[in-house]
Amino acid sequence: MAWRPNEQLIDGYLDNTEPGKVTGHLRFVGMSEMVRLNLEGDFHRDIRGAVLLITKCGTDDRSRREGYMEGFSSVQNGDAGDITAGLSPMDYVGYPYIEWYSLENGRVVLELEPNEVEVIGTPLVAGEQDPLDREKQTQLLGRFLARVAADLGKQNDS
After folding, report:
1. DSSP secondary structure string for all residues of 63-74
2. Which among 78, 111, 139, 156 has a CA at the least distance from the CA of 3?
3. What confidence tens digit (pLDDT) does each residue in 50-64 have?
4. In the chain, how many domains are there?
5. Does residue 4 sit within a domain?
6. Which of 2, 86, 146, 157 is the most buried (most CB within 10 A)?
7. β partners of residue 37
């Protein structure tokens, strides 16, 4: 299972200006602290080397969404998965998609609308960058699934 806190996301940013690193802060309904990201990896070529500013447009009833974030760590260490604004060159999907594999909470996925993100800075020249390694992305997902299976095995042994 993946965390999908789309409805809880308020705003934040992700920074990939340092090659091989994705850092940032995100605010979620139901959490008093900002969530700090410290991830290994890079954005997709459409925004690699830039900052992705996130501003959610929805303002519906937040009180019904607060409990979802219970148990979500305010520090997220791990690996960047697929992170794209869905721009050209399109190596993954045609909309903003943010995924990471957290040591604290496992797989986290945010799927956003194009008007909810803004690219700050100038991404690296896409033609000079290789797409993310799909094999590596598959390995990240495989490691996550192996951890889930191991945790299920521990629960069954109890």
Report:
1. GGGGGGGTT--S
2. 111
3. 999 999 865 555 565
4. 1
5. no
6. 86
7. 24, 76
